[in-house]
Write a structure and sequence with these properties.
single chain, 129 residues, alpha+beta, 6-stranded antiparallel β-sheet, 6 strands, 36% helix
Length: 129
């Protein structure tokens, strides 16, 4: 019989430990052959055709690359924090410290779409040169 949980224990986030949730959700992105795993500043990340999409670190949680206005919106509403490794703010990156399956899934989808649009714009510019 399992031991009863301490009534004072905080509830587990949906999907369990934050890193496990990150791994699970990013595994779901790998159906697309353009998306793969890599590292960014020593942290695990996913990229789409070489473009950064998202990363994870224990201090920041999920870190996603999104348009600047979306990052500002996430920070202003209290959902996200600025991503500022070594004190330098990355304006197109937001850290989402609270593990939340629904939120993280939606933000990963937004980040993939942002990377696709960015790649598409770059390809159009290269084609018109």
């Amino acid at each position: 019989m399992p031991a009863a949980k301490n009534a004072m224990s905080p509830p587990e986030p949906s999907g369990g430990h934050a890193r496990d949730l990150y791994d699970e959700l990013t595994d779901d992105l790998l159906y697309d052959p353009a998306i793969g795993r890599a590292t960014m500043m020593g942290y695990p990340c996913v990229r789409l055709a070489g473009r950064f999409v998202a990363s994870y670190d224990d201090a920041s949680g999920l870190v996603v690359k999104l348009p600047r206005d979306r990052v500002t919106e996430l920070i202003e509403c209290g959902t996200g924090d600025p991503f500022a490794p070594a004190g330098k703010v990355f304006r197109e990156w937001a850290s989402i410290p609270t593990p939340d399956r629904g939120l993280w899934t939606a933000l990963l989808a937004e980040a993939v779409e942002f990377a696709r649009k960015s790649l598409s714009q770059e390809q159009r510019r290269a084609g018109s040169s």
